[in-house]
Amino acid sequence: MPPPIVKHATRGINVRLQRAGKGETMLFLHGAGGLPPWGPFCEALSAKFDLIMPEHPGFGDSDTPDVIRDVRDMAMYYLDFLDGLNLNKVHLVGTSLGGWIAATLAVRNCTQLASLALLAPAGQRVKGAPMGDNFVWTPEENARNLVFNQKIAEAMLGANMSPEDEDRALKNRFMATKLGWEPRWHDPALGRWLHRVKVPTLVLWGADDKLFPSVYSKPWVEGIPGAKCEIIRECGHLIHVEKAAEATGHIIKNASGR
């Protein structure tokens, strides 16, 4: 059973979040699609950790503060978030946009982190390997291009959305565009500072990712000292949805230092 969605304030910025489990803290930062359903991925991680999953400022029903203008601001917000909850030795996990935010946070300050897991993160580009353009994909193209298993895409397309869900989706798209439009889904300076990440780091990618091809894993592994990379077969961009069991296995192994 999913935990309740509650409100949490950090320096006057209210966000929604879900929290469940016991033990060491794990913070999961979602992608551009917004706060995901609490599914098998979250259940597996909350069985091992105190899992916290916030909805980013600017997304869904969270506040949209003027102070957050880009991913760097979002990373600073989450450093305040960790301070506000008095959290240390946190296992930080981010997917896609959330991975970009997580990496940017880690570059700035790793002292409160125990490990880092990046699931097909945005944030870097690879010359000669064009990324997909989800800003111009139709809703059907978006659903089908984000996963390898088209049954998942058909379920996404067939889901009935309430008017409230449609409003949240529109707000999510607006904020994702604000953060990722220009330059498209990357920070040209980020790669120069990845050497500052000093915690065990996992880079996880789907072999069939059509948004950020799996070759995009290379600059992360080359830039972060000691980073380990796992490429998951028959998997698209939504690793935590499509290959939840395999993803959580790798994340737990990385968090344990193995």
- Assign a percent range to the helix content: 25-40%
- Most strands sheet: 8 strands, mixed
Order of H and E elements: EEEHEHEHEHHHEHEHH
Mean pLDDT across all amino acids? 97
* Secondary-structure content class: alpha/beta
**Based on DSSP secondary structure assignment, what is the total number of beta strands?**
8
Compute the number of helices: 9
Strand content: 15-25%
Q: For the largest beta sheet, what order do the strands appear in spatially?
A: 1-2-4-3-5-6-7-8
Instruction: Report the principal-axis shape.
Output: globular
Poorly predicted regions: none
The end-to-end distance, rounded to whole angstroms, is 30 Å
- Rg for CA atoms: 17 Å
Secondary structure: elements and pairs:
Elements: E1 6-10, E2 13-20, E3 25-29, H1 40-46, E4 50-54, H2 71-84, E5 90-95, H3 97-108, E6 113-119, H4 139-145, H5 150-158, H6 163-180, E7 201-206, H7 217-223, E8 228-232, H8 239-242, H9 244-255
Parallel strand pairs: 3-4, 3-5, 5-6, 6-7, 7-8
Antiparallel strand pairs: 1-2, 2-4
Helix pairs in contact: 1-9, 2-3, 4-5
Describe the structure.
By secondary structure, the chain is an alpha/beta fold. 35% of the residues lie in helices and 18% in strands. It contains nine helices and eight strands. It has helices at residues 40-46, 71-84, 97-108, 139-145, 150-158, 163-180, 217-223, 239-242, 244-255; strands spanning 6-10, 13-20, 25-29, 50-54, 90-95, 113-119, 201-206, 228-232. An eight-stranded mixed beta sheet has the order 1-2-4-3-5-6-7-8, with helices on both faces. Strand 7 (201-206), helix 7 (217-223) and strand 8 form a beta-alpha-beta unit. Helix 1 packs parallel to helix 9, helix 2 packs across helix 3 (97-108) and helix 4 (139-145) runs antiparallel to helix 5. It starts with 5 loop residues before the first strand and ends with a helix.
